[in-house]
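INFO batch 0412 | record 1 of 1 | parsing
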Amino acid sequence: MFRLWIKEWKDNRLVNDTVVEDDRRDTRTHKVLRGLEEGCRRLDLAVPIWLDATIRDFQRTAKCRFTKDAFIEEIGFDYLEIQVIEEDQY
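INFO prediction complete | emitting tokens
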């Protein structure tokens, strides 16, 4: 089972979150992208753009933050954070 935790932060407080699960046999990249899209849909947010720094952080730690620079429209929070909390064990 693959699980991705999507968290919305404002003023150093967690204001909204969701966990997306994916048990399909697919690549980790596809699961992360689908999970981010599903999580943003659940939280009623636009899907952020992956910037180079965001990609590097995620590759290094399986966790990253999307700040206002990663969104096309205005956001009502400080940043969106995603974190892999469970990886597939094949």
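INFO post-check: The chain has a mean pLDDT of 95.
INFO record closed
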